[in-house]
Every structure is written in C-alpha cells, then in structure tokens.
Amino acid sequence: MPMQQLLLIGAGHAHAFVLEAFAQQPASDIAITVVSDSPLAAYSGSVPAWLAGECTLRETQIDVAALCQRANARLILSPASSINTQARYVALANGERVNFDVVSFNIGSTLARPQQQGENLPSYLPCDH
C-alpha cells in the first residue's frame, strides 16, 4: 500500500498537537507535510501571560520547525494560495504544488491591532496599573 500523504495547512496549536503525537508515536505509512508562512506560530493561550509580563513574546510561540523535525515532517515555508479538492492538491504562493490524501486547515491566530474608526483616536489603548 502506498504511503498516505497528510497535509497540514497552517501551524496553529491543533496541528502542533498532531505533530507532537506523531513525534511520540511515528507512523511509517504516513508522510506529513506542514505548510506555514513562518517557522514560528503564535499560541494565543499564552498571550495573557505575555501581557502580564510573566513570559517573553518568544515564549508564547510554537517552534514549528523543531516540532516538524521531531515528527519527521516536511515543513514548507510558503502560504497556500488555492486548493483543488478534485485533484487533491494545494498550490502554494511559491509556485509549488503539494498533493494530499488528507488535508487539515488550522490557521491559528494572528496578533494584529484592531482597526480604529473615527477621528482623534489614540494610537494605543491605555491600561491602568
């Protein structure tokens, strides 16, 4: 039986759990590819600790590259641009095409400032100490 192709799009914490499971219990009949735009992924669950000054911003991030290495997964650093479900492949922004038998999308969270509307708004939200 040919090797099954598992494609994980995005490096959110759900995919981190999948990779950790494969790192602990490898499957020789499954090839894993992770597509992410960064070798690090924000873990939103630890943002409150960062905001409270209990850890650094780096400590809130998942080292996707290291996790892929432990799980024997291939990491491609390029955003996905389209999916063809009939032909079972994902096209990437770098021009590469990745075939899959099973694909999972987990884009995680993005830390971005909220959009502000109106005039004379502060460029930050003040916080009381």
What does this structure look like?
- With 129 residues, the protein is an alpha/beta fold.
- The chain has one domain (4-105): FAD/NAD(P)-binding domain, CATH 3.50.50.
- It has helices at 13-24, 47-51, 64-70, and strands at 4-9, 30-36, 40-42, 61-63, 74-77, 80-84, 89-92, 97-99, 102-105.
- The longest helix is centred in the N-terminal third of the chain and has 12 residues, at 13-24.
- It is globular.
- The termini are far apart.
CATH superfamily: FAD/NAD(P)-binding domain
Give the end-to-end Cα distance, rounded to a whole number of Å.
Answer: 62 Å
Strand line-up of the largest beta sheet = 5-2-1-9
Along the chain, the helix and strand elements come as EHEEHEHEEEEE
Helix count from the secondary structure assignment: 3
Organism: Vreelandella olivaria
Keywords: FAD, Flavoprotein, Oxidoreductase
Cofactor: FAD
Protein name: Bifunctional NADH dehydrogenase FAD-containing subunit/selenide, water dikinase SelD
Which SSEs are present, and which pair or pack?
Blueprint: E1 4-9, H1 13-24, E2 30-36, E3 40-42, H2 47-51, E4 61-63, H3 64-70, E5 74-77, E6 80-84, E7 89-92, E8 97-99, E9 102-105
Q: Could you provide a short overview of the structure?
A:
It comes from Vreelandella olivaria. The protein has three helices and nine strands.
Search tags:
129 residues; alpha/beta; FAD/NAD(P)-binding domain; four-stranded parallel sheet; three-stranded antiparallel sheet; 3 helices; 9 strands; 19% helix; globular
